[in-house]
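Anyone? Bumping this.
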Amino acid sequence: MTNFRIDNLQYANWSEKIFRQMREGGLDAVHVTISYHENFRETVLNFEQWNRWFEQYPDLIMKGQWASDIDKARETGRTAIFFGFQNPSPIEDDIGLVEIVHTLGARFMQLTYNNQSLLATGCYESEDPGITRMGKQVIKEMNRVGLVVDMSHSADRSTIEAAEISERPIAITHANLHSWAPALRNKKDDVVRAVTERGGMLGFSLYPHHLKGKSECKLESFCQMIAQAADLYGAEHLGIGSDLCQDQPDSVVEWMRVGRWSKEIDYGEGSAAAPGFPPMPSWYEDNRHFGNLEDGLKAIGMNPEEVTGIMGGNWYRFYAKNFTPQG
Amino acid sequence: MTNFRIDNLQYANWSEKIFRQMREGGLDAVHVTISYHENFRETVLNFEQWNRWFEQYPDLIMKGQWASDIDKARETGRTAIFFGFQNPSPIEDDIGLVEIVHTLGARFMQLTYNNQSLLATGCYESEDPGITRMGKQVIKEMNRVGLVVDMSHSADRSTIEAAEISERPIAITHANLHSWAPALRNKKDDVVRAVTERGGMLGFSLYPHHLKGKSECKLESFCQMIAQAADLYGAEHLGIGSDLCQDQPDSVVEWMRVGRWSKEIDYGEGSAAAPGFPPMPSWYEDNRHFGNLEDGLKAIGMNPEEVTGIMGGNWYRFYAKNFTPQG
């Protein structure tokens, strides 16, 4: 198996510096978030911004649409950038936009971001009535065109139902095991099982609020959680979705948390005392540290083939099967 | 040379009936207008509508993006549908939308529709100051991504300047020779020359207001005009852009003519007494008559190879060179 390195979720304050760090870290592909609460037109502005970066940094990055673009990136020493949304706001109330955003390059879309959406329930709601009428139609359309259902920020019942309703495997792109770190965003056994036993993927997050001991979490502990997940769900369903939010100002955390849906501040996983991004663990400060995960997994004795899959091979195989139109 | 049949401009009230008539007429490709005055979001709704038609009629039509899609359509007995705009309204005031609409499938964009636009001057304005500052930037961007400049409804100076400024050949997708029928929309010698001598194309229109004798025009006269254009500009620069507006209600003529830019009625090429679409000539009522043009050109003695080019081969070659990104 080729030693791909794929990080399946980042939302950094992109710059030439970060693109160079991706290259230093040997990243063949990165899935980047280009929408939290943006409506369709605002999301198109974000596609436009990336088009400009592809023009400006043709030696560092390229647009990723298919798994084969990862091979192309690797052959030319670049990082393939794949697009995703952490909310269905880009499709507004219009199912026809599912195919439009896929044509523009979107490959993952969360059905919810913390709150109730038109499609499903977010993990911060007190009630979870499951997938909505529109949600069922949109999942079918996402299956048809090759836009992957991502339930990272969704509530449990909605996630399990999405896994069951979807005819193609779904993903939790960035979260950890709730049994290891009982954060609201980490996933319980029945949720992870529902996703992985249908061919879905779980990407492990380095966001400190999702880590045992937060910023003080040890690499060994993180890797042991991964090894445990491999035992429980099969290593082939696991990958990395670092949730790297490098160089973002606190105003962006606020946009992520409250968008335009509230006039009051909601601190999400933070607090009034610590409203901003927490510091990353010392062994994962930016893309240059991606290789530390490989070393960590090997150090705890995971077999090299499983490590290769987790570092990128599993996402590669998932991309190859799930980004193309059905049939 | 393969005997392609390509109609490089239609704006019909699309239906299964018309798609079947395209097949009966042996059309391998049709360039369809999907925007007159629609802004970006409204144009996206039109892309969405076509996506639904591709889903509903997969045996009759398919989305066309590249010249190779015409071969694919031909092999599978379908018509490849290519998209274009008769106005730059879909890109609003945002140059970043040029690449976005190309990604969605747009392949031709008029810089103006009769009136002054942000980019150039339309043929109904009394003054033509030429290509604007934004126009120069947008032409460069259209060249870069592979979106063809179409000047069918533009004023003379703007058209000649566009041909000169553009680094790739441009097109007049639907118009006839002004010397043959002196309609405002038909093109004078210096305009046609500026376009064709730089590798550009002229598509001949069957819209009665552009014909000598209007609805009473004879096929022989139409074909003689084409033969004359072949002598003057070279047959390899000529094709068909029928401007077929089949089954459209008069309300659509009004939308084409006044959009949202005027509260008063503007009759364009019509008049208060005859505000609607004029009847098509008896030898060109719909797509099933496309072959009549071939017969007509052969009947006046044009050489078969030139006829093959005009019926579609020339547009095929033009598509192959001008729809892909530069460099």
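Late reply, but here is one note on the structure posted above: The longest helix of chain B spans residues 304-322.
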